[in-house]
Amino acid sequence: MSPSDPAGPATVTQSAPDTFLAPAGHHRAGRWIDNWDPEDKTFWNDGGRRIAQRNLIPSIFAEFLGFAVWASWSIVVPQLAAVGFVLSVDQQFWLIAVPSLVGATLRLPYTFAVPLFGGRNWTIVSALLLLLPASALAFVVSRPETTTFPMLLGVAALAGLGGGNFASSMANISFFYPEKEKGKALGLNAAGGNLGTAAVQFAVPLVIVSAAGLQLGRAGLMFIPLIALAAFLAWKFMDNLTTAKADFRAFGAAVHNRHTWIISFLYIGTFGSFIGYAGAFPTLLKSQFPEVTISIAFAGALVGSLARPLGGIIADRWGGARVTIASFIVMAAAASSAVMALREASFGLFLGSFLVLFVATGAGNGATYRMIPAVFRVGATTPERAATARKAAAGCIGIAGAIGALGGFLIPRGFAISTTATGTLQPALWAYVGMYLVMAVVTWSVYRRRGAAMSTAGI
Questions:
Q1: What domains lie within the chain, and their CATH numbers?
Q2: Are the beta carbons of 310 and 362 closer than 8 angstroms?
Q3: Phi, psi torsion values for 20, nearest 5 degrees
Q4: Three-state SS annotation for the chain
Q5: Which of 31, 115, 316, 361 is the most exposed place for a label (fewest CB within 10 A)?
Q6: pTM (predicted TM-score)
Q7: How many CB atoms lie within 10 A of CB 434?
Q8: CA gap 91, 366 in Å, rounded
């Protein structure tokens, strides 16, 4: 429970009857902090920053694991045949796509879980929930003779729990930081999470190898001690904020603003492409170039993750819309190059094309995210309008994050349909080229075109 009338700027209470003013950074189990005001410079400099940083580090680790579990099937699926599973191309891509669909669906409820249960409490719970997909993965892949495809699909769907972690982690950290420092903190939080995709694709091929052959169950078992560590770190170092309230009016304001839906559409192309390609890339390598080890697949997610904060930094200088347009153009060119690589059966060109594609998705991801507050600030000429704009921007971030993650479902399913219908990936890649060009035109038309309402705002 939380106190109703704190005595100071940061009051920490327990379920015990005694309530007192705790020094900044003082660790107490079950603690709640009241009257959190990071916009107060004195409060922030006298301990607020230290508390926020103490919460950020375990949050990044928990989100890192969430992304890793979310992406675990991307590197497990190409290994299933080696341990006795017989799956069609369509079934393989279903196993890759369904975690993204579930993760996208969970993002909105996970966002509201933070003010409902407390950021510290929900980080512990959401981390422990990852034990379900991790242990279930270890169980089913070790029993190919009795595991059916529906069972595999159900366990893959559980991995979507990791996708929800991003939303709750970002929402929680946003409450801790002042407006001027939110960008950096959220960027670190997001980049740390995205790196979980690269980490799992790097680690699994190493972990599953043993003298007795492939031990694919280890791909799930390796998470269990890390999940326990994430829950412990959250319990030990994080705090709950009683000032973190669910603002349904923010979502209402965002829902009724057309820019929420435009940006959500663009976010499918940037963040959704990152998740979709990261999920599909190991399987694409295995199917198109079977002689090449899939251990190289992690490089795509790695460069895409590292490019995300870079895209935000460049967007701060040149404008989010301009960088987003450039990213879509590069993505279209890279996808076209991947088609040429398939026609020439060139692994080097294929790998290079996808690495460029990943960099562009990461940079576009950071740039599109940067556009959101700038778009909603336009026309906020009074303090009241500025406050409304901030609420709408916060709502847009939640909605766009959920809708954008659907790209992680659409891209693998596009590859599946293309391969099943034509025997090649090329039609899917051409479809993605067309979509990126449409998205570039939409971004230019709404936010950069001379005469457009937003063109003078430097979005």
A1: 1-246 (1.20.1250.20), 247-459 (1.20.1250.20)
A2: yes
A3: -150, 165
A4: CCCCCCCCCCEEECCCCCEECCCCCCCCCCCEEECCCCCCHHHHHHHHHHHHHHHHHHHHHHHHHHHHHHCHHHHHHHHHHHHCCCCCHHHHHHHHHHHHHHHHHHHHHHHHHHHHHCHHHHHHHHHHHCHHHHHHHHHHCCCCCCCCHHHHHHHHHHCCHHHHHHHHHHHHHHHHCCHHHHHHHHHHHHHHHHHHHHHHHHHHHHHCEECCEECCCHHHHCHHHHHHHHHHHHHHHCCEECCCCCCHHHHHHHHCCHHHHHHHHHHHHHHHHHHHHHHHHHHHHHHHCCCCCHHHHHHHHHHHHHHHHHHHHHHHHHCHHHHHHHHHHHHHHHHHHHHHHHHHCCHHHHHHHHHHHHHHHHHHHHHHHHHHHHHHHCCCCCHHHHHHHHHHHHHHHHHHHHHHCCHHHHHHHHHHHHHHHHCCCHHHHHHHHHHHHHHHHHHHHHHHCCCCCCHHHCC
A5: 316
A6: 0.88
A7: 12
A8: 32
Res 208 pLDDT > 70: yes
pLDDT (tens digit per residue) in 91-140:
999 999 999 999 999 998 998 899 889 999 999 999 999 999 999 999 99
How far is Cα 166 from Cα 178, in angstroms, rounded to an integer?
A: 20
Mean pLDDT lowest among 47-61, 252-266, 379-393, 440-454: 379-393
- Tell me the two tokens of residue 406: 């659907």
